[in-house]
What does this fold into?
Amino acid sequence: MYAILKKDMEDFRSLCQHRRSIRTYQDREVEPEKIHYMLQCALMAPSSKRTNPWEFVVVRDQQTLRRMEACRTYGSGMFRTAQAAIVVALDPELTDTWQADGAIAAEHLLLAAEEQGLGACWCQVLNRPAAPQREKTADAQREKTAVCDRDGKPCGAEELIRELCGIPETLRVLCVISLGYKDEERKDYDLDKLKYEKVHQERIEN
Ligand SMILES: Cc1cc2nc3c(=O)[nH]c(=O)nc-3n(C[C@H](O)[C@H](O)[C@H](O)COP(=O)(O)O)c2cc1C
It folds into this structure.
């Protein structure tokens, strides 16, 4: 029993070591069964008082995926080649821990994707401005003065994703997890180089 447990723990650590953010994907379809597997993992994520405040939107339409890149100025390049995506939206009325609940479910998606041999990346949507009209916005001011191209009205990344995926106003959009077969190599985490100084015993300050 202990041997089995020990092996599983080692496997989980290896999975954590291998999982890196992958932002470039092959032009190859992601099997629906793999996405189904990932969603099963997300639906088993813990949530405060078991409120399950999440809603997941699976996006496979290539046009919608490409349009998602416009949700941010920087940090949304993964949608240039993403073959699928899962939007993580939450109902803030159900629990005040909705952001934490969403983040845990999203991490389940990321780890399950790695286990399925897929690359994935978190694209932050909540509290992020949308891509500005590039020619009108000075580099240094981009994130601050961003306005959406749509009708010239101010618009956050959340509104753009909401519109693309038909997400009602009652839900908040935390992030979109982009997916695809990896087309870039990332180094595994090195156990010897982890930031062990972040770990404290009993107290941080005396
Ligand atoms: C809350 C959160 C928000 C993130 N937002 C973005 C994002 O908008 N765009 C992006 O390319 N990566 C994003 N990432 C991925 C991080 O940049 C990445 O996890 C970090 O650099 C560590 O690299 P690794 O995932 O390869 O270990 C986000 C990750 C988290 C946890």
In short: Residues 9 and 146 are 45 Å apart (CA to CA). The chain has a mean pLDDT of 89.
